[in-house]
Write a structure and sequence with these properties.
The protein has 623 residues and is of the alpha/beta class. 31% of the residues lie in helices and 23% in strands.
């Protein structure tokens, strides 16, 4: 009982201790048990049914002048904290285990050079999902305990992933924490995640994430500042001696950046025409941005925003903007008298789906069309893009644009961090992934709202001379015109979620053995093999090598079958199969992709022996 009381007093103080510039270190105290989220008073709060949508004026700075104690809390390594391509993601209940999150945060600080955070500025925000409020308090206290000078936190802990990158870059921060499991479901029984972005705003490189994992295997203590929980409900500043917490409006910096990238007046003129627009925020973080940007700035009607209130459990939905999980939006766009344009974004705001009236734009086509139209429709690119890039599984549609525009082109592994180096080196402007991620060098993350504004800009530019009542150039018109110019890359992705890891790994090993035996010219059904490999990427900027990034079968007619295990889930394995075929014949461009690709799809399933290894009859999601 005494032990529990001492721990609660140490980590969940109700008074406001503070510190001078010379913090006092307290040696490890054996009688203090391990740190966990249960020591933070918000742990038992119910799910919120609404989030802030307005922002109060900043309060005057609060200053706490007394010295703060930094406690060295003993801990032990915890298994399973290896960071994937998008950070560490697990079930909420895993992160709620004693010290689970705290260990990872301390291991991160132990992995960074002191000059990257000591007396420095960090950013903290997330997508509003369940456990973010408790996690924010843990992160703030450990940041203070490790000597960080100041931390900027989004009001209510809210900052979209693109906004975190934008704030890091604008405020010249040393880096930032993003609390999100991206497009995965939220709530007490679902997913949570954490990742760290560096000073350029991009996700930490593997050299750092590998160090973090190594330090989680040997960690013995956590440095925790003895300060009270920070009130994140209103904008303002609290000073604790030489440590400062500033709660910021999550929209302001990001909105300012968007106004510098796009011609907002051009988009406003489109929305004044008989052009109907619908944005589905999926009860996720972009709900906090949708009204200020689309309604207040661009003049869309309030009913243009659906599911616009961020919720901790995303309204019991799966915040993944695709044809399966955004079905309500799809049904509206494909319904009688549907709107002209529809879009959705995911949990943390970095993904997007674009729809026209009765028309779906694949992510692979989307990035290619944005790149082809960027110079004339988007002021940020008035001098033309520097270069283009896509993830390896993404279709070759972007390659054809790069060739026509005579631009440098790069094919990289899945994971946005691979684009960041190219951007920092001035080699890349526009890039995308088939997994509904599109972006540019305005930040160092993919950006859902950016993609929506890019498409609105293209449609607006095509209709800039239209008068009210005249027939408008539609989303479908833009896409079909692009196909007529470049040809169509028919593309589909099959996702098999939460497969047993053992069976999934056996399937990939089977495919690796098969490619080791395959030879150019070998027949796979009616397709002749050009080459088969396990994709390896050598970064042209720093020379780093990423291997085993996806098994590829590339055929002589340009068709491709690709297999990957995804690292973005929190349980089991997700098998992704990508199928692509190039079609130059305009008369065949309207054919349904699933029909056009059926021979390749059948071949992909047969070659992989997916059903034999996993027992799965059907994919969870087809894109």
């Amino acid at each position: 009982m005494a032990l529990s009381l001492r721990l609660h007093t140490l980590l969940s103080t109700t008074s406001r201790p503070s510190f001078s510039s010379n913090a006092t270190l307290t040696p490890p105290t054996p009688s203090i048990s391990l740190l966990s989220s249960s020591h933070f008073p918000h742990h038992h709060l119910p799910l919120r049914t609404s989030h802030f949508l307005t922002v109060k004026a900043a309060s005057s700075p609060a200053t706490v002048a007394d010295p703060i104690k930094i406690n060295l809390v003993p801990t032990k390594p915890i298994e399973g904290q290896k960071t994937g391509t998008s950070g560490l993601r697990k079930k909420v209940k895993v992160f709620q285990q004693e010290n689970y999150l705290a260990n990872w945060i301390q291991a991160l600080f132990d992995s960074l050079p002191p000059e990257d955070y000591k007396d420095g500025l960090l950013v903290l925000g997330g997508d509003g999902r369940y456990f973010n409020r408790e996690a924010a308090q843990i992160i703030i206290k450990i940041a203070a305990g490790n000597g960080v000078g100041k931390i900027l936190v989004g009001k209510e802990g809210i900052l979209s992933t693109p906004a975190v990158s934008a704030v890091i870059r604008k405020r010249k921060a040393n880096g930032g924490f993003i609390m999100s499991a991206s497009h995965n479901p939220g709530g007490p029984d679902y997913d949570w995640g954490i990742k760290f972005n560096y000073s350029s705003g991009q996700p930490a490189p593997e050299s750092i994430t590998d160090k973090i994992y190594g330090n989680t295997l040997s960690i013995s203590q956590i440095k925790v500042a003895d300060i009270a929980d920070v009130d994140l409900s209103s904008v303002g500043v609290i000073n604790y001696g030489n440590f400062t917490v500033e709660v910021i409006d999550p929209v302001t910096d990001y909105l300012e950046l968007m106004e510098n990238v796009f011609d907002f007046q051009l988009i406003k003129n489109l929305l004044k025409l008989e052009f109907r627009f619908l944005f589905d925020a999926m009860h996720a973080v972009t709900g906090a941005y949708a009204k200020p940007i689309f309604v207040d700035k661009l003049g869309a009607t309030p009913d243009s925003i659906t599911n616009g209130v961020p919720l901790e459990d995303f309204g019991h939905g799966h915040p993944d903007p695709n044809l399966t999980y955004a079905k309500d939006l799809v049904d509206v766009l494909y319904g009688t008298n549907g709107p002209d344009f529809g879009a959705a974004s995911d949990g943390d705001g970095d993904r997007n789906m674009i729809l026209g009236k009765g028309f779906f734009v694949t992510p692979s086509d989307s990035v290619a069309i944005i790149a082809a139209n960027a110079q004339e429709a988007i002021p940020y690119f008035k001098s033309g893009p520097k270069g283009l890039a896509r993830s390896m599984p993404t279709s070759g549609a972007l390659d054809r644009v790069a060739e026509k525009l005579n631009l440098p082109f790069f094919e990289v592994p899945t994971g946005w961090k691979f684009f960041g180096n190219l951007m920092d080196a001035g080699k890349l402007s526009i890039c995308g992934e088939e997994s509904f991620g599109t972006g540019s060098d305005h930040i160092r993350e993919k950006d859902g709202i950016w993609a929506v504004l890019a498409w609105l800009s293209i449609i607006a530019y095509r209709n800039k001379d239209k008068k009210p009542g005249e027939k408008l150039v539609s989303v479908a018109d833009v896409v079909k015109e692009h196909w007529a110019t470049y040809g169509r890359n028919c593309f589909s992705r099959y996702d098999y979620e939460e497969c047993a890891s053992e069976g999934a790994n056996k399937m990939i090993n089977h495919l690796r053995e098969l490619i080791s035996q395959s030879k150019p010219g070998e027949k796979f059904g009616s397709y002749a093999l050009k080459f088969a490999d396990d994709f390896t990427y050598t970064d042209p900027v720093d020379g780093s090598v990423a291997s085993k990034q996806g098994v590829r079968f590339v055929f002589t007619d340009g068709s491709r079958i690709i297999y990957r295990l995804s690292g973005t889930g929190s349980a089991g394995a997700t098998i992704r199969i990508y199928i692509e075929q190039y079609e130059p014949d305009v008369s065949k461009h309207d054919e349904d992709a699933q029909v056009a690709l059926k021979p390749l799809i059948d071949l992909a399933l047969s070659v992989s022996k997916l059903k034999e290894f996993t027992g799965r009859e059907k994919p969870t999601v087809i894109t």
